[in-house]
Amino acid sequence: QTFGTNAVTLFLISIFYLTCALGLMGNGTVLWYLCFVIKKNPITTYVLNLAAADSAVLICLFCMTLLSLVEETSNSSAVLALCFFLAYSSSQYLLTAISIEKCLSVIFPIWYRCHRPECLSAIICVLLWIMPSLLLGLLVFINVDLKVSQSICIINFILCTPLVIMSTAVLFIRVFCSLHRRQRGRFYTVLLITLLVFLLFGTPLSIMLICIFFGYLNEISVNPLIYFLIGRKKMKRSRETFRLVLQSIFSDNIDCRVGGQPSILDGGRLISN
Predict the structure, then answer these.
(1) What is the pLDDT of residues 25-82, one digit of tens each?
(2) Over 2-37, what HEC string results?
(3) Which residue windows are transmembrane per the record (predicted)?
(4) I want to staple 42 with a disulfide (CB 3.0 to 4.6 A). Which of 22, 121, 124, 138 is the partner?
């Protein structure tokens, strides 16, 4: 029985580290292309920060698990736990911000195209990194100790889940279920799939701890795969580089058109696939 238990534990740990490695490779590739290859735009700013937060989550999980295996209980574990919850919260907030922004672009296209501040994405990303830092600092300051994890998860659930559900519903109705003839872009497909994965793995309070260490791990690791698979879909050439796939998805043009004609969102220009 001990041998069987050890074998199962070793198998789960191997799957865990393999998932971490694949997730880091995928998110690292996204970071490379968005930092040094693809031209910056409001969407890539969000996705760049999301990939950075997801990578930080994976690194923290990897290190925390490694310390637990060697039975290390020093202050390093506490620091890693705080860094994990910082990155975890920022990742959830960034994904929520992306869903809200794209929802606004569909509901208020004229405002989004003509009146949206150019630096809004950068400002929001900075705030979404600062906000969980201040929240974690407050929780540590008031000595909640072991309740930090529950407090962070509950706060994230209350702040993010209703907004993500509403944004997902609006995007699905306006982009996929509209009575008007509409050509939906690949980015909206990517976003909706990512939001659905987030809702499936990132929010249920009843399996909160499992989601943090396994479900959320899978969700953030699969994001780069979603980008690649949806980006390659329906492309004329079967072999496309990852740079071209990301460029086609995260283009600054909003590829949502009504009635078969270019909408005001893309400035009257057709977006080629």
Answers:
(1) 999 999 999 988 888 888 889 999 999 999 999 999 888 888 877 766 667 777 888 8
(2) HHHHHHHHHHHHHHHHHHHHHHHHHHHHHHHHHHHC
(3) 12-34, 46-70, 76-98, 119-142, 148-173, 185-201, 207-230
(4) 121
